[in-house]
């Protein structure tokens, strides 16, 4: 009798917990929203940069430093904690990312100089790094594949376009609040903190999808785990990721200054729109190229990106606002197509345990590609000037895109030749080769 009485509450508790979990479609929507909105929170500070420069003497170099300090914790999170969700659960690590995101936003409410801006951005970076592995893998787990070895369409679209689409959403909403709302230095951060809290509640009630593998401590060894089957492809795809995100890093850190100095628009909303002009279309470019073969999407996106960057440079030189926005939108579409194609190439056929590690590697290379060139550009502005730095930066992005095309093309030919040799019939011992 004692055994029966002791076991009954446990059974009821487990049943109650199961009833409180969201259905799989609702959980997919909730976790997908969290991935997008952690990006939106990261994009929220950009429209405030002009205000910070005016009131607190923050320079363009300081702004690119804030981008770098955002990237470094993100890279640490990806390197050390990128596979943690395989061991302690997707839900636990995803909730941790929301908590760090909220903490970063609350610190940013007190910005009165560079120090708190850097602290807040560092917390946001760590939150984003956790989300790019755990929350992205959570989305992939919750979206069942339509055919074996092929990630679900929702998961592919959300993991490739969601973070950058979120940046655009955050920048535009923040710009509108800063320009038209009251108490702009605080209100925007409180709003996004509340939104992330709601996302955290949705994650809390979502079902766990990770099998919780052993080896938690070992998984914290800094490493990027790329399965042997996709290592060659990863090299070519990484070149494209760096080209795309280098441009995104420039827009996120310096588009507000570029719009004010070169285009003559100083409003906070316009600063947000300048950032969104690139990052918002990138979320659309992926789905537009979904029917193309992955490598075709990567190469086509890189070619169009190179042409569009030339258009951006011409528009800036001519101080043409319509030209700047038109070329930026095309560049964003190309960004999305190339990045989405790279995602599909690498994620197709991966085992669930490999997803978090590969996603960590993808975003690690992407974020370093965004941070390092943008930081160097910011340091050079004082001596070179914004217009010269912009032209040089555009040339770098074009070079990276063309290099990516060359790497992917050579890699594809080598893989094709290797498969052809493997498929060729082996002649019998007494049969002379043709």
Rg, Å, rounded:
23 Å
Number of strands: 0
Give the total of domains.
1
Structural class: mainly alpha
| Order of H and E elements | HHHHHHHHHHHHHHHH
Query: CATH homologous superfamily name?
Result: MFS general substrate transporter like domains
Sheet-strand content, in percent, reads under 5%
Tell me roughly what share of residues is in helical segments: over 70%
Structure at a glance:
By secondary structure, this protein is mainly alpha-helical.
Description:
- This protein is mainly α and 434 residues long.
- It has one domain: MFS general substrate transporter like domains (Growth Hormone, Chain: A), CATH 1.20.1250.
- It is 80% helix and 0% strand.
- It contains 16 helices and no strands.
- The chain has helices spanning 2-19, 24-43, 49-56, 60-81, 85-88, 90-108, 114-142, 153-180, 184-204, 216-219, 231-261, 268-288, 294-317, 321-347, 352-384, 386-423.
- The chain is globular.
- The termini are far apart.
């Amino acid at each position: 009798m004692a055994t029966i009485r002791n076991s009954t509450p446990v059974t009821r508790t487990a049943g109650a917990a199961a009833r409180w979990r969201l259905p799989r479609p609702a959980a997919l929507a909730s976790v997908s929203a969290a991935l997008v909105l952690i990006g939106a929170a990261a994009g929220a500070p950009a429209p405030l940069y002009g205000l910070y420069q005016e009131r607190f003497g923050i320079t363009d170099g300081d702004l690119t430093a804030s981008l770098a300090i955002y990237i470094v914790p993100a890279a640490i999170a990806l390197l050390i904690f990128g596979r943690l969700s395989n061991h302690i659960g997707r839900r636990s690590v995803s909730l941790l990312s929301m908590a760090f995101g909220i903490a970063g936003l609350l610190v940013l409410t007190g910005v009165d100089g560079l120090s708190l801006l850097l602290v807040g951005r560092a917390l946001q970076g760590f939150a984003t790094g956790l989300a790019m592995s755990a929350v992205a893998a959570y989305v992939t787990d919750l979206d069942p594949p339509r055919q074996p070895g092929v990630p679900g369409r929702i998961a592919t679209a959300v993991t490739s376009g969601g973070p950058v689409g979120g940046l655009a959403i955050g920048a535009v909403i923040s710009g509108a609040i800063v320009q038209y709302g009251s108490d702009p230095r605080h209100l925007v951060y409180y709003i996004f903190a509340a939104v992330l809290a709601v996302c955290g509640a949705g994650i809390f009630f979502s079902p766990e999808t990770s099998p919780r593998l052993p080896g938690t401590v070992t998984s914290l060894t800094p490493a990027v785990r790329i399965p042997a089957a996709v290592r060659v492809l990863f090299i070519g795809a990484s070149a494209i990721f760096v080209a795309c995100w280098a441009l995104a890093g420039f827009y996120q850190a310096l588009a507000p200054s570029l719009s004010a100095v070169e285009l003559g628009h100083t409003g906070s909303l316009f600063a947000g729109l300048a950032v969104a002009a690139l990052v918002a279309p990138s979320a659309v470019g992926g789905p537009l190229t979904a029917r193309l073969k992955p490598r075709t999407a990567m190469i086509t996106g890189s070619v169009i990106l190179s042409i569009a960057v030339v258009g951006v440079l011409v528009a800036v030189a001519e101080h043409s606002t319509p030209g700047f926005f038109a070329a930026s939108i095309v560049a964003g579409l190309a960004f999305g197509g190339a990045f989405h194609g790279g995602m599909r190439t690498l994620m197709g056929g991966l085992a669930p345990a490999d997803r978090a590690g590969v996603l960590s590697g993808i975003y690690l290379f992407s974020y370093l590609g965004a941070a390092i060139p943008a930081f160097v550009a910011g340091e050079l502005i004082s001596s070179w000037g914004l217009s010269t730095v912009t032209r040089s930066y555009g040339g770098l992005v074009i070079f990276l895109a063309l290099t990516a095309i060359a790497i992917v093309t050579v890699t594809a030919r080598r893989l094709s030749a290797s498969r052809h040799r493997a498929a060729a019939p082996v002649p019998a011992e007494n049969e002379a080769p043709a």
